[in-house]
Amino acid sequence: MDQERARTSRRTASLGVTPACVRIIVAGLCLPLAQLAFAASDTISGAGALTARASIDVAISIPRVMQMRLIGHPAALEVTAEDIARGSITVNGPSIDLVVNDRAGYDLRAELVNAVFTAVRIAGLPATVQAGSAPAIVRMPSMTGRSRPQPMPVAYELQLAADALPGRYSWPVALSLQQP
Q: Most buried residue among 17, 40, 47, 77 by CB atoms closer than 10 A?
């Protein structure tokens, strides 16, 4: 019996259903049967009519989802003498896959993590993101009520520092999601 209860508990937990929810659901399913049995009873005792009342409060909670996957982002960038003469590098091809179910939308935080780069502009998202020496936090609109979006192709325009040297540098942009 205890093993069956543990298996059921694990199954319902994996579905995001708490034991309290299970008890409420079972009570909700059993109540009409109890009322039917009570109404079918032919035993009447007491002076007045018998009445039965019950109420059930049901609450559904949907867990907040904030997921971001970076697709096709390079691990490193090769900076050439031509890039330094131009003062910037443009990286096309990466995509960002976002799933956020908060009705208030979400904040996207962008931060440069390599001193060779002084600024970044990210195009292709619902709002353009620009970060410099300080991280940028940009409010993005809600995705609630819409079908799941496809990964969004983005372009990064990275400004190089005046004293940058040619070479291989790790990916300079860190992105994260935050609640608004």
A: 77
